[in-house]
Amino acid sequence: MIHRPRRLRKTNLIRDLVAEVSPDKNKLIMPHFVKEGTSVREAINSMPGIERVSIDNMLRDLEEDLNLGIKYIILFGIPDLKDHAGSEAYNENGIVQKAIRQIRKNFGDEICIITDVCLCEYTDHGHCGIVEHGEILNDPTLVLLSRIALSHAQAGADIVAPSDMMDGRVNSIREMLDSNGYQSTALMAYSAKYCSSFYGPFRDAAGSTPQFGDRRSYQMDIRNIRDAEREVLLDIDEGADIVMVKPALSYMDIIRRVADISPVPVCSYNVSGEYSMVKAASAVGYIDEQRVVTEIITSLFRAGSDMIISYHTRDIFKNKWF
Ligand code: PBG
Asked: Which of 143, 213, 283, 312 has the largest CB neighbor count within 10 A?
């Protein structure tokens, strides 16, 4: 006899009945780039549909997004001033801190605010840590990262998300939050963050391209698997509530592996370059954007993601792609 797996592919209803995974748009997180000023709205050339906006415009976008059903956001700040120590990152009146307070004031708890905790958007050299003699120093950076995270928590962030890849940052941040009364601020660690070329468009957006060298001494080597497990386990041990794998598409093996070993939820970050490729190919008609985006998001859930940060989020909700 012939075994016939096709029986379960025969009709829409049967296919739906046996589907193992479905993409859940309520677990998508929309990134926002916020900058100083008023009425600012700047296109990001390499990321069609994504903009750098001032707080007033961000609040307008958030209201529209919330009406569509988007409840989760991650904030990235673009300061006016960058310096050697990234001091705008932990200024209580810095751009992200002001943005958080305004979002809370306008939307209460209707929006879950996640903040990226890093120095690279705030340093003049573009690295994610303190630099001395061309070296990215680990331990002195921890002090600053903890101050950034605390300032975000004080402004009202729900979840802080360190993306720097310094050793021991989760532990330092957790201690800093706890000792200041922010025990209930959650920590999402960019745990398995690879040194990827897919971040190019983001660095255009945030002006955070390293001015010398690269990030290979802190972000993970793309050739490694065990290192991802180690980073994830260390971060969980240090107190991470959620761990992240980044980028997503070339790293589905890592997402699967992390999902298999992690006792905490796993986020994957569908990064800027992944978004830009889809946008560029769709714009010239090489691929069908709706179908490809649906396939990408479904695949990331299938690989083991519990939630996904994606620049496609707004399009998915707006166009009801799934
Ligand atoms: C900051 C940070 C980066 C991204 C998120 N947080 C840039 C980097 O590490 O160079 C990249 C996100 C994306 O490409 O969409 N460290």
From this structure: 312
